[in-house]
Amino acid sequence: MNNEIEIQGYCDERFTNVKEIFAENFKLGLDVGASLAVTLEGEFIIDLWGGYADAAKTRLWEQDTIINVFSTTKIMVTICTLMCVDRGLLDLDAPVAKYWPEFAQNGKEELPVRYLLSHTSGLSGWSEKFPMEGLYDWNLCVTKLAAQKPWWKPGTKSGYHLVTYGYLLGELIRRVTGKSVGTFFREEVAEPLNADFHIGLSQENDPRVADLIPAKLPLLLRILGSPLFQKLLWYNLAIKTLSKPDYSKIVDATRTRAWRAAEIPAANGHGNARSIARIGAALACGGELDGVRILSPSIIEKALEEQSYGKDAVLLSPIRFGLGFGLPCKEVPFPHPRTLFWGGMGGSLMVMDLDAKMSLGFAMNKMSAEILMDLRKVRFFDALTKAFDAL
Fold first, then answer.
1. Bridge partners for 34 per DSSP
2. In the sheet where 358-364 sits, what is the strand order?
């Protein structure tokens, strides 16, 4: 079999070094199937894809291949939430319970909306054990969160809201718009921007979905989810967050119709680099793209305001959070300070550089065990920075 990977798509000749890095990642074994897209002032300067959609290399990664991008989905939910703030439907400083009365339990009566966006609410996971299939039951998940006591004093530190993030904000969106987060996102963001990204995937799209190829992280999750480990380290917030429900078989779950059909707004968005970068371009260009405005410039500026910065209690590494986005810091640097970003378990990524009016999307199937910036992304940014410096 010929191991040479043919790279498809478009790349502006000024950024051929980035295309070379993308191709080299396959030769180095860093990727099996992947897509990379970059926009500048709303126009695509890079839109590449290549490789295979499965580990056995029997299906090519095509132009319209999509994949589960895990926590990159969180940015889509963040955008929807900020749209509700922009429209006066939500107040960042109002209690969550103003919109969701059942939330006013166990000391959460005055907990403000902004704490949900900044991962500082104390609700990084569920206290009650339930099977992972319970994530498909929206009412079950939000009812448990409404009744739950925060695991730390809200507002005092961040603890990454691994999966609860999407349910907490998604329920707020549902309460003030009458629409599920997946429906709101589709009607207000994806369709107007012509972006092939989905929260709750219809069955007709299944043939286009690539298979995730797990790295070491699912094994780590199995260890963290073991009863003995939980008993020994139950006080640890990372263990508590990762163990209820047990996420050890989450990669297998992504291949099921039940997972794809559900709305798990922090974890089961499906898209590709093109759709991620397309949505990111709207923010990078001040909230409007091709005559479609999704956010005002003022709310984007507000999203850049630091909400917390320090060692995250769940990710166990320093993170600087704005309103729903990661922000540049010395531990996670970017060329420009006015940059919004986040990524998903395994390697997917979305970046919006407001100064350069640049957006980047990356989606792949071979998962990395790195939490934030794996080698592929470091290589992309090095190449991009050099290309921009040469302009």
1. 50, 364
2. 8-11, 43-51, 33-40, 358-364, 349-353, 339-343
Residues with Cβ < 8 Å from 180, sequence gap 6 or more?
138, 170, 173, 174, 200, 263
pLDDT band at 371 (very low <50, low <70, confident <90, very high): low
- Other beta carbons within 10 angstroms of residue 74's beta carbon come to 30
> In the numeric block, which tokens belong to residue 360?
């980047």
Burial of 354 (0-12, 13-18, 19+ CB in 10 A): buried
What's the pLDDT band for 232 if we cut at 50, 70, 90? very low
pLDDT beyond 80 at 61: yes
Which position among 71, 243, 248, 348 bears the catalytic label? 71
> How many other C-beta atoms lie within 10 A of the C-beta of residue 297?
14
Check if 71 is active-site.
Answer: yes
Give the domain ranges of the chain.
55-356+366-373
The CATH architecture annotation of domain 55-356+366-373 reads 3-Layer(aba) Sandwich (3.40)
Cα(45)–Cα(15) distance, rounded to whole angstroms?
A: 8
pTM comes to 0.94
